[in-house]
């Protein structure tokens, strides 16, 4: 197993296979998301090898989560576009970003906000349901609660 590549600044970069392994998905999944421009490499070596930075790993994990929550690919792409426009390679929020840095229309941003609010509301409902179920199971099997 190879170690992720490092630049002189000691930023970790992952190959496609390493990124997939770190995220717990197949290499083909990473390649598919790259083909759909959901993920874009941060560097390309002289030999043509694609390298992804640490924030790409976070974005990939977020994509996997958003897809499992039912977000369509187009909205997931908008989410990644927004996050890439407002964050640096390491994933830190850029304080200097401007609205014109985000290549999405206000309508697309509004649709994204609507979807995120719906997902968040569903998450909150399920969190309450899961907490009730956990309390019931704890009481059932331990007699506590």
Automatic annotation (TrEMBL):
Keyword vocabulary terms for this entry: DNA-binding
InterPro entries, sorted: DNA-bd_dom_put_sf, MerR-type_HTH_dom, MerR_fam
SMART domains membership: HTH_MERR
Domain named HTH merR-type: residues: 13-82
Gene Ontology MF term list: DNA binding; DNA-binding transcription factor activity
Organism of derivation: Deinococcus marmoris
Matches recorded under Pfam families: MerR_1
Full protein name: Transcriptional regulator, MerR family
Lineage top rank: taxon: Bacteria
């Amino acid at each position: 197993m190879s170690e992720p590549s490092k630049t002189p600044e000691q930023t970790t970069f992952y190959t496609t296979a390493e990124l997939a392994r770190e995220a717990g998905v197949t290499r083909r999944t990473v390649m598919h998301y790259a083909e759909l421009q959901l993920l874009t490499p941060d560097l390309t070596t002289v030999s043509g090898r694609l390298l992804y930075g640490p924030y790409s790993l976070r974005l990939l994990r977020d994509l996997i989560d958003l897809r499992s929550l039912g977000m369509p690919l187009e909205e997931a792409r908008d989410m990644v576009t927004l996050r890439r426009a407002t964050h640096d390679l390491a994933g830190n929020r850029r304080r200097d970003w401007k609205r014109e840095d985000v290549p999405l229309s206000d309508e697309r941003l509004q649709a994204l906000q609507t979807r995120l609010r719906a997902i968040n509301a569903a998450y909150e409902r399920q969190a309450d349901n899961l907490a009730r179920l956990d309390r019931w199971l704890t009481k059932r099997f331990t007699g506590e609660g």
